[in-house]
Specification:
Blueprint (H helix, E strand, L loop, with lengths): L5 H10 L3 H14 L3 H16 L5 H13 L4 H44 L3 H29 L3 H16 L4 H18 L36 H26 L4 H15 L4 H15 L5 H12 L8 H13 L7 H32 L9 H26 L10 H15 L5 H21 L1
């Protein structure tokens, strides 16, 4: 009897992971993935590496390091990568879509309630408590990323310069990234120690039990590099992006809100490294300042609602699209909701499409070698610049919440108290985001009820 080759053995082991078992896991993950990228990645690691033994710790971290380098939401990209590795392109699409779909549907519902019933006192109370809590969450994100990233005075200086550039000079986010990348490339040649790699992904305790996709499991056939297959993926990805844009330009014109959104959120998907908190300042700059699709207050409300839903935080762009489409009513006043739905679908499509293309194109090259990926000096400098940009977003949101009518009128005492307690809970007492959100919601509703009663 002919022995199976190692490649065949590896293929059989991977095939032992049932597609519908994986489907149920990805669906479950879409509903329980609270806590931002760190919490979502931790959940996947616990379920897939420690509990189910579907993939080894080393292979999991290898995939995660690749996703950390890409622009866009790394947790969603990691889910797509692992789904693709286990069950080909269908598995990748299934994992990536189910990671986003529950939060998309929930946020559509919340956005509808926000636009229709946002004036009600209990909703106002809910948001009154959520807004300062969200400001604290963004500050905590800047602090957390800064602690991991700014390891020397050069990176600190880059972060400070990016803060000043966007806060005082209103510099475009892509320009800040470009300048930081050039500084990193230049500095990395003359003094690479200032731009050394600091891993964002720390390997957890490795299980002694062999995983189905283990360290030495051969690369499955569908994950091998094949030029024809890569060309097809690139062509399909290009068509899925280009055809909708051309149809919108042809039927609606270049200045229509949907056409503008398609271009803007494509750039957001391609130019924003560092996860959701890096994308949000760029989205704010475009949606609020440049295009004036929504107001600063609405953007803050969207962040508050986005924090209450599972899935990637960048799903807040669904709220941005829905509110903008609903307010503009480009299909007529009697079809406001449909206008909001079309705008929400548009921004979500163009934001997440590149992530799938990146994974399906880059996955075979990553699987070709099981060596650790390392960020280059330009990417380290860009990460430092992102800290400054996130800090600017936190600074702006804090001012808008704590002194909504300007410094002359003084602090909003209630918002300041909720902000400080939330920040203390997050940084000092290490409380989860969802607990802080629930606390702030309860306090806001209670405060509004007391105001109404007295």
């Amino acid at each position: 009897m002919q022995e199976n080759s190692p490649q065949q053995d590896g293929r059989e082991r991977i095939d032992s992971i049932g597609f519908w078992d994986a489907f149920k896991f990805w669906l479950k993950l879409g509903f329980i993935s609270f806590g931002g990228p760190a919490g979502q990645i931790s959940t996947m690691h616990h379920e897939l590496v420690e509990k189910r033994k579907w993939i080894s710790d080393k292979r999991f971290m290898h995939a995660l390091n690749f996703c950390m380098v890409l622009p866009g939401p790394e947790a969603q990209q990691l889910a797509t990568y692992l789904g693709w590795l286990m069950h080909r392109t269908l598995g990748g699409i299934t994992a990536g879509v189910l990671f986003v779909l529950p939060s998309f549907l929930i946020l559509i519902l919340l956005s509808t309630l926000y636009m229709v019933y946002g004036h009600l006192s209990w909703v106002e109370g809910l948001l009154q408590g959520l807004k300062p809590a969200v400001s604290a969450i963004v500050f905590q994100a800047a602090y957390r990323i800064g602690i991991k990233t700014l390891k020397n005075w050069v990176l600190m200086l880059i972060a400070l310069a990016s803060f000043v550039a966007i806060n005082q000079a209103d510099a475009p986010f892509p320009l800040i990234l470009l300048v930081a990348a050039l500084l990193g490339a230049w500095g990395g040649r003359f003094n690479p120690s200032y731009f050394s790699w600091n891993s964002h992904a720390k390997s957890s305790k490795i299980s002694t039990e062999r995983a189905i996709i283990d360290d030495d499991t051969p690369v499955p056939e569908h994950a091998l590099i094949a030029k024809t297959k890569l060309f097809k993926i690139a062509l399909i990805g290009l068509l899925l992006w280009l055809v909708p844009i051309l149809l919108m330009v042809w039927s609606l014109g270049q200045d229509h809100i949907l056409t503008q959104m398609s271009w803007f959120f494509t750039k957001a998907a391609l130019l924003t490294f560092g996860g959701a908190y890096a994308v949000l300042p760029y989205v704010y700059q475009g949606a609020v300042t440049s295009f004036e699709w929504i107001t600063p207050s609405q953007m803050l409300d969207g962040l508050a609602l986005g924090e209450t839903t599972p899935g990637p935080l960048i799903i807040v762009i669904t709220f941005v699209g829905f509110v903008a489409g609903y307010a503009k009513s480009f299909m007529g006043l009697d079809m406001q909701w449909l206008s909001g739905i079309l705008a929400a679908i548009t921004v979500t499509w163009f934001t997440f499409l590149p992530s799938f293309v990146f994974i399906f194109l880059g996955g075979p090259f990553i699987e070709a070698t099981h060596q650790q990926l390392r960020l280059t000096a330009p990417l380290n400098a860009m990460t430092a610049a992102i800290v400054g940009v996130i800090l600017n977003l936190a600074f702006f949101l804090g001012l808008h919440v704590l002194v909504p009518d300007g410094l002359v009128t003084g602090l909003n005492v209630f918002a300041t108290c909720v902000f400080l307690v939330s920040l203390l809970a997050l940084i000092v007492f290490k409380q989860s985001v969802i607990r802080v959100i629930l606390f702030a919601s309860l306090v806001g509703c209670t405060f509004k009820y007391l105001q109404w009663s007295f």
